[in-house]
C-alpha cells in the first residue's frame, strides 16, 4: 500500500500502523515538523506524541506572580513553534499512545526535544522517570511553569475537565 505524497518507507510504516498499534515499532521518521500543540507534532502527515513528558492543554490557565492569567497551553505551543516548527526533525518511534498517535523521542538539530521541554519548564516529566531529574532542576531554578504563581499538572487538568463535563 502506498500513501499518496508520503515517501515509500514512511508509507510502509503508516500502512502497518493498525497491525503494530501499541507495540514498539522501532522505526525512525524524518521530515519537517508541524507543531500541533505543546507536546505534539506532525511529520510527513503522521501525528507524533513526544514521549516522556506532558505539556499544558489548550485553554489551560496559569497565573503569573503579577496576577495575570495566561493561556498556558498556547504559550507552550508558541515556544514549540519557535523551537521546531518548519524544521527537520528525527523521530525514534517506539509505539502508539491511546489516541493512535506515534509515540517517540523527537530530535531537532541533535537535541532531544522532550528533554528540552521539561528542562525549560514547558512540560512536566510524565509516564516514565526519564526526565524526572530535569524537572527537579527546572523546579529548583524556577524555569517556565515553575516560576508561575499557580499552574496545573496537565493530567489533573484533563481529569478535572472530564469531571466537569460529566456533571453537566
Question: In summary, what is this structure?
Answer:
This protein has 168 residues and is of the alpha+beta class. It has helices spanning 8-15, 17-20, 72-84, 113-119, 132-140, 154-167; strands spanning 28-37, 40-43, 46-50, 53-54, 61-63, 69-71, 88-96, 102-108, 111-112, 124-125.
Model description:
- With 168 residues, this protein is α+β, with helices and mostly antiparallel strands.
- Helices cover 33% and strands 28% of the residues.
- The protein has helices at 8-15, 17-20, 72-84, 113-119, 132-140, 154-167; strands at 28-37, 40-43, 46-50, 53-54, 61-63, 69-71, 88-96, 102-108, 111-112, 124-125.
- The chain has a five-stranded mixed barrel with strand order 1-2-3-8-7.
- The longest helix is centred in the last third of the chain and has 14 residues, at 154-167.
- It is globular and about 45 Å long.
Structural class: alpha+beta
Radius of gyration: 17 Å
**Average of the residue pLDDT scores:** 86
Hey, roughly how much beta strand do the residues contain?
25-35%
Total number of β-strand segments? 10
Strand order of the largest sheet: 1-2-3-8-7
Give the termini distance in whole angstroms: 45 Å
Following the backbone from N to C, one meets helices and strands in this order, namely HHEEEEEEHEEEHEHH
